[in-house]
Amino acid sequence: MEQTTTIQDKATVSVNWENDGMLEISNAKTLDTYNRLCDEWYHRETPYIFYAFNKNQFAEGVKKLEKNGWKNDGEKLIDVGYGGFTTRRGYERMTEEVDEHHRKIREQCDIKEVYWYEYNNHESFISWDGDMNAIQKIAAIWGEEEARKLNRFSPVYTLDEIFGKKEVANA
């Protein structure tokens, strides 16, 4: 494992080559908060969306929406991906909740610590895509400009390849 000099009270990271390059995070100040916010997010009630991977689950999901006030009177269901279905109003509500969740993370968590966590969480140290999932998560929460400022680990793809070329204004 690489040696790192730890400045008191400052979060640091080092690469643990004995563990395939996983990041060792020290003195993190906001990871507990990030984990709590994510845990709350994953365990929240979502009466306006359902996930289905077969016909039976789809039928049960439609019943769930109907029980929560949706009337199958012409308002179509929207496929939001990953097996998720909702209505237009449900999609708007989901978008508002995602925005609020991201706002809380931006306000309460350190961008570097979240990147390090997501780097490990997505096993970027052994992924063929390197840190692509981790940097995309950061961009979704903080925006592309902030993601571009990070010191990345295992960048297989450039940020221009991930986000598209950055426009440069003519002088």
Keywords:
single chain; 171 residues; alpha+beta; 7 helices; 5 strands; 46% helix
* Helix content class: 40-55%
What's the oligomerization state? Answer: single chain
Strand line-up of the largest beta sheet: 3-5-4
- Largest sheet composition: 3 strands, antiparallel
| Tally of helical runs | 7
Stretches where pLDDT is under 50 for at least 5 consecutive residues are none
Coarse shape: elongated
Number of strands: 5
Provide the succession of SSEs: EEHEHEEHHHHH
Please indicate the percent range of residues in DSSP E strands (runs of 2 or more). Answer: 5-15%
Give the class from helix and strand content and strand pairing: alpha+beta
Radius of gyration: 20 Å
Average of per-residue pLDDT values: 90
What is the distance, rounded to the nearest whole angstrom, between the alpha carbons of the first and last residues?
47 Å
Descriptive overview:
With 171 residues, the protein is an alpha+beta fold. The chain has helices at residues 31-42, 55-67, 88-108, 111-121, 132-142, 144-148, 159-163, and strands at 12-16, 22-26, 49-51, 78-81, 84-86. The strands form two sheets. A three-stranded antiparallel β-sheet has the order 3-5-4, with helices on both faces. Strands 1-2 form a two-stranded antiparallel sheet. Strand 1 (12-16) and strand 2 (22-26) form a beta hairpin. The longest helix has 21 residues, at 88-108. The model has no long low-confidence stretch (mean pLDDT 90).
